[in-house]
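It is worth pausing here to work through a concrete case rather than discussing structure prediction in the abstract. The textbook approach is simple: state the sequence, then state the predicted structure, then interpret. We follow exactly that order.
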Amino acid sequence: MSGQQMELEAMADMFNKMVDQCFKKCVAEYRESDLSVGESTCVDRCVHKYWGAHQKVQDILQKQMQAGGPSARPM
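Step two, the predicted structure:
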C-alpha cells in the first residue's frame, strides 16, 4: 500500500471518529431534521477541538520522526 493511500485512509478514519464522537456528545435525540442552534454550536466547537488536538499530535510525531525516532522521555 502506498504512503498516499495510507495517509488517505488515516484521514478518513480520523474524520469518521470525529463525526461519531461529536455527534454522540452534541446530539441527544432526534427532534428535527436540522440541528438546533445549541447542537450546531456544540458540533462546531467539538470539531474545532478534535481537529486542533489531531494537529498537535501530528506535529509532535513529525518532529520525532525528523529527530530520528520516538523521544526517550514519556509524554
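Step three, interpretation. The chain has two helices and no strands. The longest helix spans residues 37-66.
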